Amino acid sequence: MEHPSAVLTREAIKKQEFDMLLHKSTPERRAIFEKLQEKKWFQKTDSELQKKLLALPDKGIENHDGFLEDLASRPEEISNIKVERMIDLPRGSFALVPKFEVSRVDNPNKRFTYEYVSWRSGPLTGEKGVVFVEKDGVTTHFIVLHGEKFATGKKSWDSVGGFADLGMDGVKTVADRTAKEMQEELGVADIKILRKVDLGTVNPDVGMTNNEPGIFAAFIDSKDAAKISSQPLNGDMYELKSGAVIFPMHELPKVVMTNTDSMFLSAIARAWAKGIIPPPEGMTGKAVGFSLN
């Protein structure tokens, strides 16, 4: 049997290590950690894993506060599942996969594991949307992206926009980041956004990830659209080759049936529901009195 003094010494060392990590942390990280300490599953999690959570980067582009804030805000019981403790935390450059031991509320002896994928910034990762072209006040075309994607391992459809990465490159707001992404992805440094409509948020895959990015519809003038090249030209060193594809509005139904990008499909559905783009050919009227709140 372990001597009580050894247990006390180990606990003292553990507290000292945590105090040192907290001392190096930002005020925001310390506040999040206080919330985590109140969670019973966190209290039962191995101390090394607790320290791993606390030591996640808290500054610059690699800031993980969004992930931790969401983690600290999650309920300890979800439906008939009780979260017992975290048992692993695989982490890549952009995402984490927290793995938990859970039990059934009606049968505590029934134990199994659950995990989900989270971006380091938490659910609100950024925003993506569809760019529409206007000429003399009429919406004539829409723009999407098509190119190689590492995750799918093949050419795929995509929407304009991306990670917020606030604080990098002088970007302070999500809107600023979207404007910068549009310049890079469409290859027009002086492109002007006539107006941008917020279309709420979406969950791309609720069975796998907590990701809930924003979606939007943006409008540009036909003169700016004429400057867009169809050749792969995204200058971001971390992006694979992709290029803009400009479709006339009458091809929208065909593109909807073949485009597999959930951001595009969601943005088109909400843009139509809000009445900011005309209905597909053969349909009349528009959705009215609809709220995203």
Q: Biggest β-sheet, characterized?
A: 7 strands, mixed
CATH class of the largest domain: Alpha Beta
Mean pLDDT: 85
| Quantity of strands, as a count | 13
User: Which consecutive residue ranges, at least 5 long each, have pLDDT under 50?
Assistant: 285-293
How far apart, in Å, are the first and last alpha carbons?
59 Å
- This entry's quaternary arrangement is single chain
- For CATH, the homologous superfamily of the largest domain is named as Nucleoside Triphosphate Pyrophosphohydrolase
* Gross CATH architecture of the largest domain: Alpha-Beta Complex
Radius of gyration: 23 Å
Helix content: 25-40%
Count of helix runs: 9
The third-level CATH topology of the largest domain is: Nucleoside Triphosphate Pyrophosphohydrolase
Count of distinct structural domains: 2
> What is the percentage of strand-forming residues?
25-35%
N-to-C SSE series? HHHHHEEEEEEEEEEHEEHEHH
> Judging from the principal axes of the Cα atoms, what is the shape?
elongated
> Would you tell me the structural class of the helices and strands?
alpha+beta
Descriptive account of the structure:
The chain is an alpha+beta fold and 293 residues long. It folds into 2 domains: 4-119, no CATH class; 126-273, Nucleoside Triphosphate Pyrophosphohydrolase (Alpha-Beta Complex), CATH 3.90.79.10. The protein has helices at residues 4-24, 27-37, 40-43, 47-54, 65-73, 174-186, 222-225, 252-258, 262-273; strands at 77-78, 81-88, 95-96, 99-104, 107-115, 118-119, 126-135, 138-149, 154-158, 160-163, 195-201, 214-221, 242-248. The strands form 3 sheets. Strands 7, 8, 9, 10, 11, 12 and 13 form a 7-stranded mixed β-sheet that branches. Strands 1-2-4-5 form a 4-stranded antiparallel β-sheet. Strands 3-6 form a two-stranded antiparallel sheet. Helix 2 runs parallel beside helix 5 (65-73). 24% of the residues are buried.
